[in-house]
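The protein record passed on for reference:
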Amino acid sequence: MDASRKIIHVDMDAFYASVEQRDNPELRGCPLVVGGRSARSVVAAASYEARRFGVRSAMAMQKALARCPNLVVVEPRMGAYKAVSLQIREIFLEYTDLVEPLSLDEAFLDVTRNKKGMASASRVAQEIRARIRERTGLTASAGVSINKFLAKVASDMNKPDGFTLVAPEQADAFVAALPIEKFFGVGKVTAGKMHGLGIRTGADLLKWTMKDLESEFGKAGRSYYHIVRNEDSRPVDPNRERWSMGTEDTFEQDLHDREEMLACLESIAHEVVRRMERCHFAGKTLTLKVKFADFRQITRSRTVDRPIVDVDNIVAMTRFLFAPVEIPPKGVRLLGLTVSNPRAVQSQGWTQLILPFFEYRLPSWTSPTTV
């Protein structure tokens, strides 16, 4: 564990929805979502008022409206969100050039050495949050710790408008107490498998050897082994490149009906586009991934001349790729879509080729009291 680094993760609170409520005072306090109004639309962002009804991002809009009949639906205004994102980026750069954006509304900052010579990373994070509020009228949550994993988990602990510090001497105990669902790469299906193996917290995970974790979880097991020991040396890289953007869904019960699979793929397509919009990403190749119940896996890809940015195009290409796939009697356990083969993106003075979505050296902390 390297205790010398000071990493901040800043995450805007319900970003798209908060921008809409800021710009239209009549919407403040109302349950609100950002998204399309068509039958196939999904929620791109939900205000905290909407979340109290169980509405969340990536949920089908029809389901969201059923949960909250008084829900206000606002069409996305990407230009407005990008303009605010640029304001926030300018604030980050007042403190450090080591800024790694993850999307329009979140970023990692390495402030071990910072432009203002501040010894306390906590003070830097609090100043940044205050400046964001002053300049944009929006709130941000922040986490501070010694590596990316801890900082990101910490930023989510006291939302909205929250701040959490995990100091070096707290890191091991913090990870040991962390629910296994909070670890990178542990989704609903993997968490269920871990629970079946008696792994419910970081402390349980610590008991496993790397060999045993790799045996159960493949290459991901190696990542779990290192992250639970706070061995996360990933740098904050302002110049990293994103080569693909995608998502997949592992089903609790294997699917057998082709139309049901196509409906799931449409939902996945909407989520991929939502992520692409947030990260200014576009690519020319679409890849379909199908994993069958017997764990056999296939991929099918298609490359087009122009960047893929529209959900209707992705859905049409997905149907084309999926049509010849033969479904075995035991069914399908996972479906996924990935857009790759990117193009450079120019946005308001920033040119970048954006990195793979998957997510998943400076002086030491002077003392625990100055973090």
Remarks:
- The longest helix spans residues 258-278.
- Residues 273 and 311 are 6 Å apart (CA to CA).
- The longest strand covers residues 244-255.
